[in-house]
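Protein: Glycosyltransferase
Species: Winogradskyella endarachnes
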Amino acid sequence: MNILHINDKIENSGGVETNISQLVNLGKDYGLCGSWIGIYTIKGSLEIKIYPNDEIVFKGDHASFFVFIKNYIVEKDIDIIHIHSLSSPKLLEHFFKLKPVVRSIHEPRILCPGQGKFWRKSEEICNKPFGLHCILDAYKEGCCNRHPKRLLEAYSNVKWETTKGNKGYSALIANSEYIINEAIKVGFTNDKLYLNPHMTPLVEERELKDRSKEKCKSLLFVGRLSRTKGVHYFINLGLELLKKGHNITLDIVGDGHDRSYFESLIPEEYNESFHFHGWQTRENINSFFKNCYLLVFPSIYPEAFGISGIEAMMHGKPVVGFDVGGVNTWLKHNETGYLVPVKEERLLIKRIEILLNDIEKYNSMCKKARTVALKEFQPKIHMGTLYEIYQNCFNKNGF
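Structure follows.
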């Protein structure tokens, strides 16, 4: 089958793009030939880039865009359109007319105008389903852009998704039970929702590295540098562990608008223990997983899944993180690491210290993390389920 993946970008900026690149690069081995385009809105006009090249292959208005896409679908003999992170009812309604459209719910953007189910002012998770209160909460809780035009657009997008979009999609793919439950709360049709947790490429046994005997141990964070990702918690716990005399380094892989703020949180005398690496190539990221002692997953907003967690587990490394959103899909408490109630910083530090001090416990969790990753998150499992979803949608629609 030929699949067209559509996102709002092709540049890697987190888990969404990691997942799409995996689908495109691994798909051929499972009978799924994928291509990936990024759609950019620049000053009212649309631009298209095709992965993996960074060149603009189209630039124009909506009318000419629709002609381009229709011809591209014919040229590539596309069977299924797979939408990822894209908020544009006008574009989506057009795609519905061309081919069966499948959507991955990577994050709550089709459930929440703020796209995160998170109140930024109080740094608390929002447990309310979408509704008119979202307009007020944008001002009260800082959970969405408060510019009237942008707020109305964000609200209208979710309203469209939960009504017309709900009818137009052939399937909605969630990577955790958390997302499925949130989707049902706002009215998405249960029989269109499919659970298919993320995958991570197989890492051969010979590539694993035992770090239990290292004198200086690397605690790793991988992700966007934002407060929602809990980078300030990672820095604080690092400082506390260093003050207690633990021989550790804190490796931070990723980037974001808040990077300078996070760097400012580190006292000068501890600067050498913290390393900001920015975004890295896939090969380099794998090297960080290979060489770390454990992964810290300090997100304080409800992550839909958390790909970096299963990547660490595939490398045989345990994870210590906050119990938010769909994280418990893969982080099994006291087995593959430790789940800690969100924002319980003292307990987070205590759990990390257990793994720093108890090598027997650490090695046991390393082994279990690897076992779970191999059993539940290998590509063949994810791709097999995805193929069935695509085939079902293709057979049901008369395009």
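Remarks: DSSP finds 13 helices and 16 strands in the chain.
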